[in-house]
Amino acid sequence: MGTPLNGVDFDVAAAQCPSTTQRKQALDVDTVVPKPSVARANLAVSREKPDGSAGSKKLRDYTVLQQHVPFWDRDADGLIYPWDTYCGFRDLGFSVLFSLLAMVIINANFSYPTRLSVSWWPDPWFRVYVGGIHKAKHGSDSGIYDKQGRFVPQMFEDMFSQWDVHGSGSLSAGEMWQMIKGNRLAADPFGWGAAIFEFGTTWLLLQKDGRVSKEDLRQTYDGTIFWRIRDARKQGNGWDKGFGLRDLLSLGQRKLKAHIM
């Protein structure tokens, strides 16, 4: 047996599997979050926010995964039409082209799985069903949502103990990429692509100085971040995070200037 660490008196790493040493688990979550391995049905909690988001309390009848998507359910009828998806991404500040791409990817891929909660027949309008959103859970993901769409605090904390290399409480694009690669399952190209799209979009929306904060990610899981962004944009102050075309052009200009000098 290994030396007791943070109250754990059994081995949490095996010598013949180096990744168990490299990808450390968060061992002391239970000092702040009771029973962190037990999935929370309607609250996304962390060590910093053990009570979750205030806004989630209004949606106690919905799982955390269901709470993630009402931003796109514009008329609150439990159905997300392709146009709803497009408008939601536009409200978040994405371009027309990216919003159209997101609409096609999301509604084309997730309509039928979520439709299975009510019927075997495909939906002719490619609507996403909020009530069956857990059926759209794919492989090669972080495991933070369980198979019913509940939130697992231990898995969320493990995300940062394993992939936040500098312990900054945030993830860079490179660290997210390493996480995506580390979570890949065999023969699961759909899951790989979905993870790249989801975390790539998250980074584009939330990055600040190249990193996405832990709290912003937590609010992404319960959907409260989307309402914050929309309100900030509507109030005229704008959303001060994210990476868009202007940032890309600015980056290109800086690189060109550095090359010339």
User: How many β-strand runs?
Assistant: 4
Distance between the termini: 58 Å
Order of helices and strands: HHEHHEHEHHEHHH
Mean pLDDT figure: 93
What order do the strands of the largest sheet run in, or round the barrel if closed?
A: 1-2
Structural class of the helix and strand makeup?
Answer: mainly alpha
The total count of helices amounts to 10
Number of domains: 1
Low-confidence stretches: none
Biggest sheet architecture: 2 strands, antiparallel
InterPro entries: Caleosin-related, EF-hand-dom_pair, EF_hand_dom
GO molecular function: calcium ion binding; monooxygenase activity
Pfam family, one: Caleosin
Domain EF-hand: 151-186
How would you describe this structure in keywords?
single chain, mainly alpha, two-stranded antiparallel ribbon, 261 residues, globular
Give a verbal description of the structure.
The protein is mainly α. It has one domain. The protein is built from 10 helices and 4 strands, in the order H-H-E-H-H-E-H-E-H-H-E-H-H-H. The protein has a two-stranded antiparallel sheet with strand order 1-2. Strands 3-4 form a two-stranded antiparallel ribbon. Helix 3 packs across helix 4 and helix 6 runs antiparallel to helix 7. The mean pLDDT is 93. InterPro entries: Caleosin-related, EF-hand-dom_pair, EF_hand_dom. GO terms for molecular function: calcium ion binding; monooxygenase activity. This is EF-hand domain-containing protein. It comes from Staphylotrichum longicolle.
